[in-house]
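Ops channel
N.P.: pipeline sanity check, posting one input/output pair.
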């Protein structure tokens, strides 16, 4: 039986099945959801952003990870695979399997038509339960639009939008700026 054949399963059963699965699945409150593949613009944005972050964070205390790294939020049961995760300091894992982290500092999701609403609302609500999370960044792959949410000292989330190719996205947690022209390089929106 594959994960997609089950409707309600225990988290331990999900992890056991997921570790041997060729496809990725999210898990939330006993339900398992297959994850879709990504478009070419989505993959271009990922490559551009991940490449810049990998280069600029080399040798630093913060490390970027791609969408194969699973995160878990114990407060609400979500297991998911963000497009890009940055972890600062010691990586905290769920258990000794070392394949599921619990302390991302920055999460970056690349939006597409099929994920936009969920990433902006439901998933963001769940991500807010991550104590270590300082920034949540949404990068649209179908237009020039980036939304960066930063958590203030009092726990409120503040939004900064970027809509022009001559702007630069500041990721405060790692003190890195990425120009939107670099983020969207090789994408033609016409």
């Amino acid at each position: 039986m594959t994960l997609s054949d089950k409707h309600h399963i225990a988290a331990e059963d999900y992890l056991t099945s997921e570790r041997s699965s060729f496809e990725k699945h999210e898990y939330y409150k006993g339900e398992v959801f297959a994850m879709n593949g990504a478009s070419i613009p989505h993959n271009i944005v990922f490559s551009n952003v991940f490449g810049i972050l990998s280069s600029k964070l080399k040798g630093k205390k913060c490390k970027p990870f791609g969408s194969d790294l699973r995160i878990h939020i114990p407060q609400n049961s979500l297991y998911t695979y963000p497009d890009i995760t940055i972890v600062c300091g010691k990586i905290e894992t769920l258990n000794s399997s070392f394949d599921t982290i619990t302390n991302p500092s920055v999460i970056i999701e690349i939006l597409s038509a099929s994920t936009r609403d969920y990433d902006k609302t439901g998933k963001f609500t769940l991500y807010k339960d991550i104590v270590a999370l300082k920034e949540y960044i949404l990068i649209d792959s179908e237009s020039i639009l980036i939304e960066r949410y930063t958590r203030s000292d009092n726990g409120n989330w503040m939004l900064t939008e970027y809509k022009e190719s001559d702007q630069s996205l500041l990721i405060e947690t790692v003190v890195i700026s990425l120009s939107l022209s670099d983020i969207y390089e090789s994408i033609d929106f016409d």
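N.P.: looks fine end to end. The helical segments are 11-19, 40-57, 116-120, 122-127, 180-183.
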